[in-house]
């Protein structure tokens, strides 16, 4: 079975991998800085951005929680606004540049896994 992904607050129609990058860009342009996707197999994918960097987290029952990292990045960034109005700040090493985040989400929606060259850690 091929896994499909739906944006939680958008519609019940699966979002094709070919358009997920542009869909995220549009949402960010509308100041929707938090997006959740749910897969047909029950996994969840979170994308939270401050428009420059993004946190990408894959919630997988078997492997726990995994998030993209940028090893060697220094400092922290503010401006990650959640849908409930909460403002977060994250270490830059726990986020990635937004262009990379778009690529990661597109790949996960397309294949179900991180790209081979992605850097990520398991949070247990």
Describe this structure in words.
There is one protein chain. The protein is α+β, with helices and mostly antiparallel strands and 124 residues long. The protein is built from 2 helices and 9 strands. The strands form 2 sheets. Strands 1, 2, 3, 4, 5, 8 and 9 form a 7-stranded antiparallel sheet that branches. The protein has a two-stranded antiparallel sheet with strand order 6-7. Strand 3 and strand 4 (53-60) form a beta hairpin. The radius of gyration is 14 Å and the shape is globular. It starts with a strand and ends with a strand. The model has no long low-confidence stretch (mean pLDDT 94).
Q: How would you briefly describe this protein structure?
A:
The protein is 22% helix and 36% strand. With 124 residues, it is of the alpha+beta class.
Write the SSE topology.
Blueprint lengths: L4 E3 L9 H13 L4 E6 L4 E6 L3 E8 L3 E5 L7 E6 L5 E5 L4 E2 H14 L8 E4 L1
Antiparallel strand pairs: 1-2, 2-3, 3-4, 4-5, 4-8, 5-9, 6-7
Helix pairs in contact: 1-2
Biggest beta sheet attributes = 7 strands, antiparallel
Q: Categorize the overall geometry.
A: globular
The stretches of 5 or more residues where confidence is low (pLDDT under 50) are none
The overall strand count is 9
Helix and strand sequence: EHEEEEEEEHE
Number of helices: 2
What is the averaged pLDDT score? 94
N→C terminal distance = 28 Å
The Rg value, from CA coordinates, equals 14 Å
Helix content: 10-25%
Structural class: alpha+beta
Strand percentage: 35-45%
């Amino acid at each position: 079975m091929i896994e499909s992904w739906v944006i939680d607050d958008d519609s019940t129609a699966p979002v094709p991998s070919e358009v997920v990058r542009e869909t995220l860009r549009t949402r960010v342009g509308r100041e929707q800085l938090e997006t959740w996707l749910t897969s047909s197999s029950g996994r969840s994918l979170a994308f939270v951005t401050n428009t420059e960097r993004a946190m990408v987290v894959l919630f997988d029952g078997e492997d726990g929680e995994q998030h993209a990292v940028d090893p060697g990045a220094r400092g922290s960034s503010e401006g990650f606004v959640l849908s409930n109005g909460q403002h977060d700040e994250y270490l830059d090493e726990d986020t990635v540049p937004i262009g990379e985040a778009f690529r990661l989400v597109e790949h996960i929606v397309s294949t179900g896994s991180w790209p081979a060259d992605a850097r990520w850690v398991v949070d247990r």
